Amino acid sequence: MTKEEVIKALSTVQDPDLNQDLVTLNMIKDLEISDGQIRFQVVLTTPACPLKEKIKNDCIEAVSAVAGEGWEVVPEMTSNVTAAFDNTPVLQGVKNVIAVASGKGGVGKSTVSANLALALARNGAKVGLLDADIYGPSVPTMFNCEREMPEVHKQNGKDIITPIEQYGIKLMSIGFLTGDNAVIWRGPMATSALKQFIGDTEWGELDYLVVDLPPGTGDIHLGLVQNVPLSGAVIVTTPQKVALADVKKGINMFLQPQINVPVLGIVENMAYFTPEELPENKYFIFGKDGGKEMAEKYGVPFLGEIPIVQSIRESGDSGYPAIMKEGVTAEAFGKLAEEVARQTAISNAKRSEAKQQSATPNF
Ligand SMILES: Nc1ncnc2c1ncn2[C@@H]1O[C@H](COP(=O)(O)OP(=O)(O)OP(=O)(O)O)[C@@H](O)[C@H]1O
């Protein structure tokens, strides 16, 4: 067997999400052929790739078919999360900024943000969570670090904030800086405070920074999307008709031409009630499939359903997010994280393809 033959075989294996073969996508690294073994790395675009097993099996099948008997094919599945943009002046070192938004309050946006961030980290990614809900910061309570004060140091005459680390992710919330004192920010002041707060936090290297936005579609949102390079937005809704009507506003905000942020998809929170001890029993108390139908209507991906489970509320209040305990909720948030990571990778691939095409001269 030669390396060329192996590469040729691997160039028949497609990444089903990105619709290109692994060799063209530059995903094959460190190919070695020795002692009856063909070893290589497959570098996926996210550690949470739900297609990991399929791609691995496709590689083994394609190479084995060419190599024949007597060869063992050993792909090593690794990952390198793709970045939304190269060399952005804001948030350098942060590959993807994912905004979590909702058209209206109380749909569980903060709960989804916190558990999504932890689920991404559980799959091996470097993750930060920014609580941009400056009117009602909830990260300090949800992560049991209400008494923490982030360290501030001077760098080139500027105050730089070190985020708090808890449960393996980096956290920043205006709540850390204001304590119990409610802050009344007005439009432009809120935008500039938030901009400073984001830019002056030392995040270091992150694969994903999840941003929990305030509810609604106001000035803060516009300010944020204009000042921070967002990979995409996740819209949280509940199944009721009234909540779904607000989703439209949320989607439209991100898609308007001067904003133009891809909507990674819709997640339906509180999709149905389930008793934790009987997870197969599902009660669709607010109606069924509203989020899914909304996603279809607007042509955006449906990212998944999160059930209403008593422990989600309890764990949020006790500072120990639900995903940290095995069970039906950990499973639901795990699937959501896989889907968000997947849609981010797809969106990044589309963006870089469009960039290459616009850079290619048209003869
Ligand atoms: N799937 C769920 N099951 C049970 N309780 C939930 C679920 N999702 C959220 N909750 C609870 O609902 C309440 C509101 O959730 P959360 O604070 O996340 O909403 P929000 O949309 O961020 O609110 P706000 O608009 O105030 O920012 C919290 O007490 C939370 O624990």
UniProtKB/TrEMBL annotation:
Entry keyword set: ATP-binding, Hydrolase, Iron, Iron-sulfur, Metal-binding, Nucleotide-binding
Protein name per its UniProtKB record: Iron-sulfur cluster carrier protein
Gene3D superfamilies: Fe-S cluster assembly (FSCA), P-loop containing nucleotide triphosphate hydrolases
InterPro entries for this protein: FSCA_dom_sf, MIP18-like, Mrp-like_CS, Mrp/NBP35_ATP-bd, NUBPL-like, P-loop_NTPase, YlxH/NBP35
Pfam families linked to this entry: FeS_assembly_P, ParA
Residues the entry annotates as binding ATP: 103-110
Family: Belongs to the Mrp/NBP35 ATP-binding proteins family.
The organism's place on the tree of life at top rank: Bacteria
Biological role stated in the UniProt entry: Binds and transfers iron-sulfur (Fe-S) clusters to target apoproteins. Can hydrolyze ATP.
GO biological process, one term: iron-sulfur cluster assembly
UniProt domain MIP18 family-like: residue ranges: 3-68
Source species of the chain: Fulvitalea axinellae
GO molecular function, one term: metal ion binding
Subunit structure: Homodimer.
